[in-house]
Amino acid sequence: MTTLARWVRQGLFVFLFVILAPLGAIAAPYAAMVMDMRSGEVLYSKNADTPLHPASLTKMMTLYITFQAIEHGEFSLDSIVTVTKHAASQPPSRLGLRPGQKIAVRYLIRAAAIKSANDAAAALGDYIGGNEAGFAARMNRTAKQLGMKNTHFVNANGLTRKGHLSSAHDMTIMGRHLFFDFPQYYNIFSRHSANAKIATVYSTNRRFLSAYKGADGIKTGYTSASGFNLTASAKRGNERIIATVFGGTSTAQRNAKMATLLDLGFKRAPSNARVLPPRVPRYLGPMKGAPMLVAQNLAPKASPRPGNRPSPPRADSDAIALALAAAVQGDQVDDSVTDTPEDVAEETDTAAPEMQVADAGTDTGIGAEISASPRPMPSPRAIQMAQAQQAKPAEVTGATPLAQAAASDAASDEPSDIQLASYEPDNAAAAKPPTGPKFVQNTAPQPETMELAQARALDLGDESKAEGDAVEPTPGFAQTTKPQPETTAMANKGATDQPSEVILAALTPEAPAPAAKPRVVARLSSSGGRNWGVSLGLFGSNFAAERHLLTTALMDSDTLGDALRKVATRKTGYEANFVGMTQDSAQLACARLQARGMDCSLIGP
Question: Rounded to whole angstroms, how far apart are CA atoms 414 and 334?
Fold first, then answer.
């Protein structure tokens, strides 16, 4: 009997551990902070100074240090970063960097800010700090300067590590400094997508940006330990509010909570307030032992331009030289794309001459030498055409592949991959008709293929698959060298007889999942019986009920701050309810409201 009892006790312990352990992992601690962006006044706070896991909100500090280093000439947006093995080994979310790969700083900024790519953030950290520990030391030094009293960083991307902690208050301070200290870069946090050189990246915050009026940033975060985090800012009229929430149970729940917090902020903030920007921290430069980076804009502004080539004795040599110059210019078209400081995500047509060394993949540093002089700038296409016509007989220049390639490029603003044919002697050119430029198949992802391949990740909206330490969503389509007919057909008009994975890619309005509501109810009931609520009575319109719920929530935020507002349509009117409460919190809320002379009744399970 004793042995049987022992087995029963052990079995019960194992059962409870298996059932309750996942619930404990899911229920991340909750914290929130609402602040007037203009003055820094705290409008609402709950557990805001409790050190918690910040997840990818960490990348706000990584980007802040990057912007600071650029501003003080440590490097530039076009400086080339060589990806380390450490950065390339980071788990999803990822840009897809490889060890030894070279990529400009601007593209790493886009990937870290918009997609929340862990490998991009780690690459920036290794580049600036020399290694993860060196950059973390600089992050902690900067956090102390900003007044972030409950923050300690261990890495650049926010993946869960022992001792890597921050608070809702500190992350709100961090977001406010990004807004005031680097306004020329702040708009990148409002982008829904951007080109990150090796891939188009999509924002992890696009749903909230699209759904909440006035929202314009800034950063999401998710790991299993942290839950769903968000620092967000919104502007309405003269008012601007910034808020942070930690420990959301899902993307939808977190976004709804953030909307409630921002609504509360706009309600409490004065219409006109004095703008008091935070104090800009003193620039201290790189940490001791960190590699010294030399910005490319500190290099010579222009190299001596080579003199004119001597006139070649043969017409065919001139044509070959012109063809090579055209090929060089075609190769440099993509690398010459630069961003303006005001918008890291915007593309321009030309690059400053001093940036071309970086685009060629050359790392700059103290003692670095230029092993070869920069390639001379190719002549304009009109000059090339004139030189070609002067150097060759009329019957040849009218049909040479070089002339056709130049005419084709002049008619299009986009670079094309051209296979240059060798120049034929005069008699050969007259003997056979010109074949024109031969185009090489471009194996880059076609737009319609990428849209269908990424639609599932875009529509799911579950950041556990797009951020933090979870698995990335798997594309439903394999890359091909050209758009297939069936792919184009599905992209244009959709297919009703395709598998379920294809249906996810349909460009249809988003609809709530049928199982979402039962899943939320189960979570709430398993976390303390949050299946109670309070009713504030019936109202003549849905608007009146919503207004009364909001007013009441602001009046008694201590007991109703975590409750969900819900208007139920009845035959006799619209019932205003607070739901998702425990029995104790519902009874306490009702007692406090009734003490103020307000109607209130309990809603049981």
Answer: 9
In contact, 471 and 460? CB cutoff 8 Å:
no
Half-sphere exposure of 144 (CA within 13 A, CB side): 8
Catalytic residue among 56, 79, 203, 535: 56
- CA 1 to centroid of chain Cα atoms: 61
Supply the pTM of this predicted model.
Answer: 0.52
Tell me how far apart the terminal alpha carbons of the chain are, to the nearest angstrom.
Answer: 41
The question of whether 116 is a catalytic residue gets the answer yes
Report the distance separating Cα 79 and Cα 524, nearest Å: 50
Could you tell me the sign of the dihedral formed by the alpha carbons of 38, 40, 42, 46, in that order? positive
Rounded alpha-carbon distances, angstroms, from residue 417 to 76, 376, 385, 448:
29, 21, 19, 20
What is the rounded CA–CA span in Å between residue 59 and residue 158?
A: 7
Mean pLDDT of the chain: 73
Neighbours of 55 (CB within 10 A): 32
490 conformational bin, left if phi > 0, alpha if psi -120 to 50, beta if neither: alpha
Instruction: Report how far residue 157's alpha carbon sits from residue 125's, in angstroms, rounded to the nearest whole number.
Output: 9
CB 451 within 8 A of CB 77: no
Whether 442 contacts 410, CB under 8 Å: no
CA distance 216 to 235: 8
Q: Which of 116, 203, 226, 250 is catalytic?
A: 116
What's at 86, amino acid-wise?
A: H
What one-letter code names the amino acid at 433?
P
Tokens of residue 367, six digits: 């003692």
Does 585 participate in catalysis according to the annotation?
A: no
Mark whether 59 is an active-site residue. Answer: yes
Between CA 223 and CA 116 the distance in angstroms is 12
**H/E stretch holding 263:** helix 251-268
The DSSP result for 187-215, as a single string, is: GGGG-SEEE-SSSEEE-TTHHHHHHSTTE
Q: Which residues pair with 389 in a beta bridge?
A: none
Low-confidence residues in the chain, pLDDT < 70: 1-27, 289-529
The DSSP element (H or E) to which 186 belongs, if any, is helix 183-186
Rounded CA-CA distance 533/21 in Å is 27
Tokens of 101: 């790969």
- CB of 574 within 8 A of CB of 539? yes
Rounded Cα distance between 505 and 457, Å, is: 9
Distance between CA atoms of residues 438 and 265, nearest Å: 61
Tokens in use for 241? 């509010």
221 - beta bridge partners? 229
Q: Which of 46, 59, 115, 219 is catalytic?
A: 59
